[in-house]
Amino acid sequence: MSLEREKRTVRLAEKLAREGDLSDGELLELIRDRNEASARCLRRLAGEARDRVYGKKIYIRGLIEFTNYCRNNCFYCGIRRGNEKAVRYRLKEEEILECCREGFELGFRTFVLQGGEDPWYNDERLEHLVRAVRREFPDCAITLSVGERSRESYERLFAAGVDRYLLRHETAVKSHYEMLHPAEMSFDHRMQCLRDLKDIGYQTGCGMMVQSPGQTEEDLVADLRFMKEFRPHMIGIGPFLSHKDTPFKEEKSGTAELTVYLLSIIRLMLPEVLLPATTALGTAEEGGRKLGVLAGANVVMPNLSPAGVRKKYMLYDNKLSGGSEAAEHLDLLREEMGSIGFEVAVDRGDSRMDG
Ligand code: SAH
User: Fold this and answer.
1) What is d(CA 217, CA 156) in angstroms, rounded to the nearest whole number?
2) Which one of 64, 65, 67, 77 would you pick to mutate in the ligand 1 pocket, going by the greatest count of ligand atoms within 8 A of its CB?
3) Which terms in the Gene Ontology molecular function aspect does this entry carry (predicted)?
4) Is 254 a pocket residue for ligand 1 (Cβ < 6 Å)?
5) N or C: which terminus of the chain has fewer CB atoms within 10 Å of its end residue's CB?
6) 202-239 residue pLDDT tens
7) What is this structure's pTM?
């Protein structure tokens, strides 16, 4: 890496911080020619941007993985329907409410109900569940993350009391989407779902895997461009990590290094966005979540599922669910965040995006 290229990338980082955007060509250069100096510069500027909007507060979400049944067959995912080795489970409403109660006691004010696309959880059952959580926890935010549904279904669940919805777009490039998913899945439909969600009034989260098979640096620029235009309230990104019982078992996993670099770029493009340091980032590298926060993230989502099912929601190999990833060890997370100068907030942690 020549000194000249280093200087150029640092100048691009500074311009990004000043203007909140770069041309696609400049973004590509910033990613392709990344180096220790540009990473350090982005980290500092993104940290400052995050501090201006959210201060040193880290928002927490209690993640309840309530079903690992899934009708989809995404090539990367460990709970794809074709994985016959996956041991399936489905939590009942009362078990989910029990997780929320535990979480509330611990200080969680957002519950994220995530699952595979499980047909048993039809509109009627999901609505019943959401109403029950809403009734018992009127001051908490409810986030759903159960994949693609019809607009009517999203409307019905919103009316029942859901505040937020997480649906990663996975990749903003159709041809790449088709490398990650079987032909029966549709890029256009996933994007339509995201537009519907935002339009209905959900605080909406999108995001992509970093270094998923076939992903180019141009594809990442397309992801950044899409997110800048879509203006989601939240963006979840994490490295692709291979799972031994999927078609992508031999594929190379993504790195924490590029993931945190992108976190900084995203923070500078969308300073108000809620940006989690994800479990995948923590799994890819020891201390990865701290690196994420230092690079501009401001959310973590500890696991609030019943201990007995955590190992069954195995999206990728070695997915962490113990230690500070476990909701019941919030003290460890507080310590971890405290050690780098951050404080865990007991707060819904709504987005400051203006929509
Ligand atoms: N069924 C829901 C939830 C999916 S799991 C939905 O479709 O939104 C949540 C996220 O985990 C996915 O969106 C995907 O980005 C991520 N994920 C799945 N498999 C992964 C893997 N092998 N490595 C890294 N992330 C993965």
Assistant:
1) 38
2) 77
3) 4 iron, 4 sulfur cluster binding; metal ion binding; transferase activity
4) no
5) C
6) 999 999 999 999 999 999 999 999 999 999 999 999 99
7) 0.98
